[in-house]
Amino acid sequence: MPLSRVSPIRKNKTQDSEALRVLKMNLVLGYRILARYGIGVGLLGHLTARLPGAHTFWSYQWGDSFERVTMDGLRECDFDCNVITNDGEVNDSLKIEGHLYHARPDVLCITHHHSDNCLALGSIGEIVHPFERSAARVYDDMVLLEDFDNAHQDPLAAKDFVDTLGAKNCVMMQHHGVMICGQSIQEVVVKTKEVEISAGVQLKAMAAGKLKLLGHDEALRARRFKAMEKSYMGVWNYEVSKVVEENPNLFK
Q1: CA–CA separation, 194 vs 37, rounded Å?
Q2: What average pLDDT does range 224-243 have in this prediction?
Q3: For residue 120, which of 75, 37, 51, 178 has the smallest C-alpha distance?
Q4: What is the pTM of this model?
């Protein structure tokens, strides 16, 4: 059954609201930030976002890559991945995000990628554990999904995906990378790149010996601190400065 409640394609470009203009700018910055860490380079990454209450979301066009995305390359689509503003197409596998947006009104941004560290960790049936404070940002907020095959096309598999995630915000998909969601582009982009780094450190630690984890209370305090706006915005602002330094004409 189609998920969408929006009108068909709107070919004529209309003036963006200020909120939408900011969302699109932050999306472009988010793509560029993740690309600096090798995430989403090629055709193997997702970063989508929507305005609160919207029944559409924004993504980059099929065939593009995170390090090349510009404002003009963004497309609005419904939850069934039909492009409704301008022309072009998006990755059909974004339908799984349509299911998630439909089920979770609190979710305003989603990333998904197949970068080396999360892919390796998921392949052995592991999630990121709180072995240090940065890794604790997903403490008790990440689940493992053992079978993700065809969830963007099979409604039953999509339901299983949404049910497995529940109220949590991160899912490690065995053999298929990781998906992270949240309430802002800034929060989700920072968490995505930090989780990929933590996954790599965890793999090294596991190769060296048995992980020694933070206690519950310390891990919870660390997660709460990392979730504070001033914490992730500090990282975001630094990363934005590097993107602008490297791409001074990005928004001109």
Answers
A1: 10
A2: 98
A3: 178
A4: 0.93
Q: What is the distance between the alpha carbons of residues 115 and 130, in angstroms, rounded to a whole number?
A: 20
CB contact at 8 A, 47 and 9: no
d(CA 232, CA 240): 12
For residue 180, list its beta bridge partners: 111, 170
Q: Domain 18-246 class?
A: alpha beta
**Of residues 91, 37, 31, the one with CA closest to residue 67:** 31
What is the Cα–Cα distance from 37 to 193, expressed in whole angstroms?
7
Q: Where are the domains of the chain?
A: 18-246
Q: What is the pLDDT of residues 148-197, one digit of tens each?
A: 666 667 778 888 889 999 999 999 998 888 999 999 999 999 999 999 99
* Residue 208 token pair: 């060296």
